[in-house]
Every structure is written in structure tokens, then in C-alpha cells.
Amino acid sequence: MRFRMHVCEMNAYPPCVSPDDIRFLASDAGRALLGRARETRALAPHQRPAALRADAGDGADAGAWARLALQQDDLRVRAAGKLPFAETLLYEAAALEQATPWAIAAERAARWPGAPGDALTDLTAGLGVDAFAAARAGRPVRAIERDPVRAALLEANAAALGLSDQMEVVAGDATTLPATTPLAFLDPDRRPDGVRTRDAEQFAPPASSWPELLGAYRASQVKLAPGTPPEALAGRPFEVVSLAGRARETRVFLGSWDARPPRRALALPRGAAVAGDGLPWPRAADVEVGAWLFDPDVAVVLADLVGDLAQQEGLAPVHPRIAYLVGPARTPTEAGTWMRVETVLPPKAKPIQAWLAAREIGNLTIRARGIKEPVEAWRKRLRPAGPNAGTLVLTRRRDDRWVAYGCAE
Fold first, then answer.
1. 339 with 289: CB under 8 angstroms?
2. How far apart are CA 304 and CA 274, in angstroms?
3. Superfamily assignment of 96-224 in CATH?
4. Inter-residue contact 92 to 84 (CB < 8 Å)
5. What is the pTM of this model?
6. How confident is the model at residue 46 (pLDDT cuts 50, 70, 90)?
7. Using one digit for the tens of pLDDT, what is the confidence trace for 358-371?
């Protein structure tokens, strides 16, 4: 498939860069200037423009090109935490902020149903990370983007990644274009006017348009905010995804998916998963020295799968409403963090300080649920010191009294 750039009627919002800027940056002269901008990173911020100005040429636009290259270089530095090929791409600031981290996009790309070569439409492609991941996985990809700046970025970045033959870019509004592939991915813009909204009818496209928009595809997936309540998903199968302990997205599955559980939590990069129906929690249990505490990953909590995980692993909550689980032995699940209880303490500074001093714990992890006082206030009060590591869990017993558990991870 050859790379084709289509221009359709669209509703654009004010960009930070223009399509002409992107075409310059993608040219030989632009790439050379970007390389020089990278070399100035060691300089103080106020020194960088002057250092780069001479490399931007003698024309009237030289100063503007230098500023543009420095802005792009700053965005590349910011993108390094999301993308393994951050130095290769061009960016628009808001699109980068909203872009899917590569680890999540790559995992998604590997799990689409059907044949490996079935084509995928990214209906709201943005910066294109999900489209690039699907193309790198071998799928033909149709990437639709209504904003002309982001569409130009898609064109330039697909070429930079060597994916031009794998992708078709359509600059237009996905709600007005016919379906041409069996699979579709929709990441609606939750900041259509530059301000984040939780009202799905204010998304672009709005939630009321999704059934008609996605009904023409054999299987589709919608990306939503990770805090989307399960009851707001109209009984559809869904999955909450975290990355390195931070909740990142909720995936809603529509159409034909093989044996999709009602709900699932996925903790990346480990790939640990919990699936279930959102079962009630078992009866709370006491915590004794030698027991194993389990702190479920945030994806498990947001997917309301704590009860399912407890029943699957033979664990019990420490409190009827607090998502720490306890059991006599460590079980195979890795969808969270295991800790062995060394001591049970009153939630007071002096006894906790005595435990820290006896164990020479200076590298202290504090985990807290069900308490009002901030963790950092406890850290300042305790002043841990020493060469060893340990964990302090501040929470409540099943009788609702506060308690502290000194643990080894």
C-alpha cells in the first residue's frame, strides 16, 4: 500500500506549528537543524537560540526556524519517556501529551482479533502512536485525523519510521467517512476545546455517535480515561490498563472479540492480568506477623476486580472497604505488590521509629489506604535512616482501628 495524503473538509483548532513548519522540519535542511539543536542541549536555555541562529541560514525566517527547531528538540526530550524512537519524530505539544505510551500501544497492537493481516482504521489518529504500533505489527493501517497539523505530522512521522507503504493517512472527519477495514480503534478527544472534560457527549466524536460510527466494523476498541466507572460502560466488556503502577486507560470492546471476559485488569510492563465479573469482596480478616499482604495494582482496583482476585487467590481484605489483601502464603499473582509482615504496630511515630532503627531502614516505602494524613507528613516525622530497605503500610483493621504494618517486600 502506497502512502497517500487526502485532504477532506475538516474542523481544525489552532495549532502550535503549521503544516509548512512540519514540511521544513522533515526536509534535509530541517533535519540538519534539528541535529544541531540536539547538540546545544548542554547549554543554558538562554544560550541555545544564539548558538543555533547561525545554523539556521541568512534568510528572514532564520530566527523563526531556529526557535522552531529548539521547540521540537524540547518535545523530543519530553517524548523520550513515552517512545523508544522519540528522537526520530516530529511533534505538536498537545498531541504528544495525549499520545499513548509505546508499551501500551505495542501491547494493544498484538491483541487484535482475526487474521494478523486484517487492516485497521485508527479513527482519531492524533500523533499516530497506536497507528504506528499496528503498522509495525504487520497490519495495513488507515489513519484518520481531522486536524491538518496532526495529519501532516502523521505523514512525516510515518515516512521517518519507514511505514509509508504500510499506512494510508486520511486528513478528515472520521464520522463522515465510510468504513473500509474490518477493525477500528477510537481514541476520542477528551479536550476538544483545549480543556479536559469527563462528559462523553463533549468528546470529539461524542459518545452518542459511537454506535453508528463503529457498527460498520467487525471488531473495534474505544480508549477512555482510566477512571471511567464500570457502570458507565453499558455492560460492555472492558479492560483497565496500568503502566509502571500508574493507571493509563480503559479499553472498551465492541463487535466480535474471542472469549472476552466482562472485565479485565492489565498491569504493564509485567503483563500480569486479572479477569472476572466484579464479584463482592470476601469477609475481612486480621493480619498477623508472618502473613503476606498484597497491594493490588491500580488497574485491579479501578476495574473493581479486588473481590475476584481475592477469591481466585484465596485471600481476604484487611478491611471491608480497603483494597489490601492478606493471606498465609504468597500466591502466583503478580498483579500488584507482595509484602511479608514483620511486625504489627500502633500508628504512632515512636514505635515505628524504633522498628526502623532496629532494622536500620533508611530506604522506606510508605503505602497508605484509609488514612487522612499525607504520606509525606509521616516520612518527615519518622526521619528514616540506615542502609536497609523496608515498607510501612498504614491502614485500618477490619474493626476500623488504625494500624501500621512493618513489611519486607
1. no
2. 10
3. Vaccinia Virus protein VP39 (3.40.50.150)
4. no
5. 0.90
6. confident
7. 999 999 999 999 99
Per-residue H/E/C for the chain: CCCCEEECCCCCCCCCCCHHHHHHHHCHHHHHHHHHHHHCCCCCCCCHHHHHHHHHCCCCCHHHHHHHHHHHHHHHHHHCCCCCCHHHCCCCHHHHHHCCCHHHHHHHHCCCCCCCCCCEEECCCCCCHHHHHHHHCCCCEEEEECCHHHHHHHHHHHHHCCCCCCEEEEECCHHHCCCCCCEEEECCECCCCCCCCCCHHHCECCHHHHHHHHCCCCEEEEEECCCCCHHHHCCCCEEEEEECCEEEEEEEEEECCCCCCCEEEEEECCCEEEEECCCCCCCCCCCCCCCEEEEECHHHHHCCCHHHHHHHHCCEEEECCEEEEEECCCCCCCCEEEEEEEEEECCCHHHHHHHHHHHCEEEEEEEECCCCCCHHHHHHHHCCCCCEEEEEEEEECCCCCEEEEEEEC
Instruction: Give every CB contact of residue 205 below 8 A, 6+ residues apart in sequence.
Output: 124, 174, 175, 186, 188, 213
- Look at the block and give the residue holding cell 452518542: 208
Q: What is the mean pLDDT of residues 388-392?
A: 96
Strand 120-122 relative to strand 141-145: parallel, antiparallel, unpaired? Answer: parallel
The Cα 107–Cα 241 span in angstroms is 10
pLDDT tens-place string over residues 77-123: 999 999 999 999 999 999 999 999 999 999 999 999 999 899 999 99
Q: Give the strand order in the sheet containing 272-276.
A: 5-7, 167-171, 141-145, 120-122, 183-186, 219-224, 246-255, 238-243, 263-268, 272-276
Instruction: For the beta carbon of residue 95, count every other beta carbon within 10 angstroms.
Output: 22
Average pLDDT, the chain: 91
